[in-house]
Every structure is written in C-alpha cells, then in structure tokens.
Amino acid sequence: MSETIGDMYERFAHEYAAHAETSAYNALYDRPAVLGLAGDVSGRTVFDAACGPGLYARELLDRGARVLGCDASPTFVAMARERTAGLADLRVHDLADPLTWVEEGSVDLVVLALALHYIDDRTALLREFRRILAPAGALVLSTEHPTTAWLRLGGSYFTTEPVEESLSDEHDWPIRAWRRPLTVTCAEFREAGFLIEELLEPRPAPEMADRYPDDHTKLTEFPAFIAFRLIPVR
User: Fold this and answer.
1) Nearest CA-CA partner of 38 in 105, 109, 87
2) pLDDT > 90: what percent of the chain?
3) In the chain, which residues have pLDDT < 50?
4) What is the DSSP string of 4-30?
5) Per the database record, which ranges form the Methyltransferase type domain (predicted)?
C-alpha cells in the first residue's frame, strides 16, 4: 500500500507543529490570508479539512465559529484536540476517502490550508466539499503557487506530476505533492462545481519585516502560495 498523507506527516508532526506556530510562511503569510478570505465566521459551522495541529481551528473558534474537521495524522488530531480544548469535533480521517460522517449541506464554510497539492484525486475531494456545503456556503483554500514549483523544480511550467522532496530546505521532512499549472487547478474547481469568487496572491504581514526580514523581502517580490475563495455553482 502506498504511503498516505498521514504517514508522511507522522514522521515529523511535532517538529512541524512547533515550526508552523510561529514561522514566517505559516503564521505571518498563509494563516492571515486564509482567515481573511474566510471572513466573519461568528455563528457559522466551519469544516477544517487537514486541520494539522489545530492552529486554524483554534482561531476559528476564537472568532465564534462551530468547528469540526479532520486530519490523516493521529498525532496532529491529538494536538489539535488539545489546542481547541475539546471544543471542536476533530477526527482522524484521510481526505482521499469520502466524508461519510458529515451530512450533506451541513457546513457553511470549508477551510483547506496548504493541503490540496497532496491529494491525488483533487476533483473528487472538491466534489465532496461541495456536497457538505450549504447552498450559500464557501470553500477557502490555499496551496503552493504554481510558479514556485516551476522555479524550484525546472522543466515545463505546464507539467502536472507528483514530486517527492523535502517540505523544508532546513529539515528532512519528506513529502509527496503535485506540481501543476494554474490552468489545471482552475479546471478542477470548475469540474467539481465551483466558481472562483476571489483569488489572492498573499502579501506578507507587516510584522514579518522585523521578525523575518529576508522572508519578508522575498515574499514582497514573489508569491509562495496562492489562495482562493470558491462558491458552489448554483
């Protein structure tokens, strides 16, 4: 059996969680972008897909949302449950499988932060998100910017293929993720029944300039991630 996403992250879950809590790219780049696209979640039901160590879930709870979600890594789910003090319904679940425990049309917002590129059948997952979303709901997701992979890996920008590499230049965190052009990503959104309401190429949070000046300079000139707010076709 091939390695799952949960298997990948189990090897370095604690190291990654400590990194993500304060790192430039997570704390001061992706989280502000994703939570900004999420908007006002007070009184809303939010599904945090690939919840990781619970950093987004905790913030969503603090903003008044009812939170449920999942991750394929048991270690991450345990950490997320502790971080959310049992206030969120978080389960061990691989997003390659249907969300059979979530009722159709029961969720106002789905959040998928930096995980879409790990999924082999992304259209199937997106369709499952559409199923659990209420008619007026939305999906907010972030993923690696397609030009980032192209600059790092070379070859044709239009290549669509899985790549095995380390998640970090500084750590041995082996992962398997898909590189693909923006055209493919947008086609998958459309095929799954979503329209792009907003596309965001994030800018770094201002405080990054003081804490991580080199990262701030780099991210001010060129995006690392890309984020979307999608709505179901009605």
Assistant:
1) 109
2) 87
3) 1
4) PHHHHHHTTHHHHHHHHHH-HHIIIII
5) 48-141
User: Which residues, other chains included, contact 50 with Cβ-Cβ below 8 Å and sequence gap of 6+?
Assistant: 5, 70, 71, 72, 95, 112, 113, 114, 115, 118
Report domain extents, the chain: 5-40+89-232
pLDDT for the residue numbered 2: 55
Q: Smallest Cα–Cα separation from 8: which of 80, 125, 94?
A: 94
Longest dimension (CA), the chain: 47
Dihedral sign from CA coordinates of 152, 156, 160, 163: negative
Specify the DSSP class assigned to residue 2.
P
Residue-level pLDDT at 1: 37
**Closest residue by Cα to residue 119 from 91, 92, 95:** 95
Closest CA to 46 of 119, 152, 134, 120: 134
Please report the DSSP string for 197-233 in residue order.
EEEE-----TTHHHH-HHHHHHHHHS-SEEEEEEEE-
Structure letter (DSSP) for residue 104:
T
Rounded CA separation 193/56 (Å): 25
Question: What local confidence, expressed as pLDDT, does residue 167 receive?
Answer: 73
CATH of domain 5-40+89-232: 3.40.50.150
pLDDT in the model for residue 45: 98
Residue 76 · residue 17 · CB < 8 Å: yes
Alpha helices in 45-202 (DSSP H): 55-62, 74-83, 122-132, 146-153, 182-191
Distance CA 171, CA 33 (A): 25
Q: Which two tokens stand for residue 33?
A: 């972008």
Segment (H or E) for 73: none
